[in-house]
Design brief:
Length: 575
């Protein structure tokens, strides 16, 4: 039996203006080619422009057409939810802005909108208004959406929520696993308000006719029942779900062979090995130079120890995919080879300089302003990951290069978590090559879901080390594995190692390295702000001696006191 590598559906749709002069409904289905079919999925959209609005037709058409184009233009590392919400928020703001041209803003660009996204084995629903999405499973029809309408009397109801009605978008969202042979039905109120649920169910259970014919028959039935509205519906049947087995995955991942064991002087695809920078049981890193005379670059190759490990190979190939999508001066850049590689490897720019680990050793007593400036730039690089819904997960001094211009550059994508890719199911256990335990947030050891604050924990730990040469919990963090272990950890005040650190700066770092992620700053920008601005919360949280609260003031006061003592001693000696 042939294994299908992509989801397959049968779909049909139909629309009619009914007895109205104008059809203000709009609909659309898009089944993209690969790789979008895997990374973004299939989309079905249906919209019903509000009849009482002067621009209902334009509103529904704008929503359907723009969503189908803009959704597929969002970064493929983004989750379905984030991608859709970004597009819908922009659409809603545009519609609302257009509506302000009318005296009554409720008579402008207003439409209902219901969206079904099918990605991998999951269905995602976004809904506002009173169009509907149903699911037929095991011959039983279930309404999946809730009508946003207020019933005035038996024959009259008004929309309480719709696209373009309010500047603040409140849209329903849900997601669930789908089964093979699930059938989804999308309709506007001209259909479902005049056809009984049982009649729709019976029609969907009849698979003897094409989906478009079934849609038209439902429109005809609604017309017979004197529906006074536009009539639009869609049917999507799931015929195949992605079913790649481990052998199919392995075949795809091993299309490129592992490179041979490389040494200085050897060449591969026109790249000559200049020197080896790093080697471990997982990978090797070389400085190489192409025969075209271009400047030296870095080549990373996989370890032959994992030649038969699909999960490792997937992780390795993901590294360059992630790197291509992060474009920031404080993040290492992936270099595209001039020819198609004949082996599995990837290249990145060569930043001559030292690691942050070496910088810390060379600067045992750095100026606080210099440290904060470096941390700000590292945070800016991290933010570039987070904007792509990607976590670095292995931020440590060894993974930051201070280049010859004095700029920090984040390297290594080997432990990154990409939310959009994590949504795609795979028949293999994905490689979880997480970061170094001394800098990793407790969430990893405790099996909790990581987030921005996990990268923030690592950044705060690095900040502490840059200022003190030590770690905020010493060696105990790396030895903690249970909730009880972590609850017994005590933050070591940075002031104990460096008395020149102000108490508010110590407090900012302490908050960033809290064991409970909810107690940390929730954004990188918040952490940076706390590093640069004295926070009253940190200066009053504990009653410390002046030496620890304000070292500069203490030493100035002590110097003045000693000066007075010396004057008195001189006076006594003279007299």
């Amino acid at each position: 039996m042939h294994i299908k590598s992509s989801i397959q559906i049968q779909a049909g749709q139909a629309s009619d203006k009914g007895i109205k002069k104008l059809n203000e409904d709009c609909m659309g289905i898009r089944i993209p080619d690969e790789p979008l079919l895997t990374t973004k999925g299939i989309v079905a959209v249906i919209a019903d422009g509000v009849s009482s609005a002067e621009a209902g037709k334009e509103a529904s058409a704008t929503c359907v057409q723009n969503f189908l184009s803009d959704y597929y233009s969002t970064p493929d590392a983004w989750t379905v939810k984030n991608s859709a919400h970004k597009v819908l928020t922009a659409l809603n703001r545009w519609l609302y802005g257009q509506s302000q041209h009318y005296l009554d803003s409720h008579k402008g660009y207003i439409t209902t909108l219901s969206i079904l996204v099918i990605k991998s084995h999951i269905a995602y629903i976004f809904h506002i208004g009173d169009s509907r999405i149903y699911r037929l499973r095991n011959n039983k029809l279930e309404q999946l959406t809730h009508d946003h309408a207020t019933q005035i009397n038996k024959n009259t109801s008004y929309l309480s929520r719709a696209m373009g009605m309010d500047i603040h978008l409140e849209i329903d969202f849900s997601s669930f696993e789908i089964n093979k042979e699930d059938c989804f039905f999308l309709s506007t109120d001209g259909i479902h308000d005049f056809i009984k649920k049982q009649e729709i169910q019976d029609k969907l259970c009849d698979i003897s006719q094409p989906e478009e014919v079934a849609c038209q028959q439902l429109i005809d039935l609604a017309t017979q029942k004197k529906s006074p509205d536009n009539l639009t519906c869609q049917i999507i049947r799931i015929k195949e779900l992605p079913q790649e087995n481990i052998n199919d995955i392995y075949k795809k991942l091993t299309e490129l062979p592992f490179p041979p064991e490389l040494s200085i002087g050897m060449s591969i695809d026109g790249y000559k090995i200049i020197k080896e920078i790093y080697a471990s049981n997982r990978s090797q890193v070389f400085v190489v130079k192409h025969q075209d005379g271009s400047r030296p670059i870095i080549m990373k190759t996989p370890s032959v120890n994992y030649e038969d490990d699909p999960a490792y190979i997937e992780r390795f190939t993901m590294e360059q995919w992630i790197g291509r999508r992060i474009n920031h001066p404080n993040v290492i850049k992936i270099i595209e080879p001039p020819v198609q590689p004949s082996f599995l490897y990837y290249c990145q720019e060569y930043n001559e300089g030292i690691t942050l680990t070496e910088w810390i050793k060379q600067n045992p007593k750095p100026e606080i302003s210099v440290v904060i400036d470096l941390v700000k730039k590292i945070a800016a690089g991290l933010r570039a990951f987070h904007l792509k819904e990607t976590l670095h997960q292995d931020l440590k001094p060894d993974n930051v290069i201070i280049n010859q211009s004095g700029q920090p550059v984040i390297i290594d994508f080997g432990s990154c978590f990409v939310a959009g890719i994590d949504e795609i199911s795979a028949p293999l256990e994905r490689d979880k090559n997480l970061g170094t335990i001394d800098y990793s947030a407790p969430e990893y050891a405790l099996g909790k879901k990581p987030g921005i604050t996990t990268d923030l924990f690592s950044l705060a730990s690095i900040t502490y080390e840059m200022l003190t040469g030590h770690l905020p919990y010493g060696e105990k963090l790396g030895k903690s594995h249970t909730l009880r272990d972590f609850s017994q950890l005590v933050f070591i005040s940075a002031i104990q190692y460096n008395p020149m650190i102000p108490i508010w700066l110590n407090g900012a770092i302490k908050k960033g390295t809290q064991i409970n992620s909810d107690l940390r700053q929730q954004e990188l920008s918040e952490f940076i702000f706390d590093l640069e601005h004295p926070n009253k919360e940190f200066t009053e949280e504990i009653n410390l001696p002046l030496l620890q609260k304000n070292p500069l003031k203490f030493w100035k006061g002590l110097s003045f006191f000693l000066f007075i003592i010396n004057l008195l001693l001189i006076y006594m000696a003279i007299s």
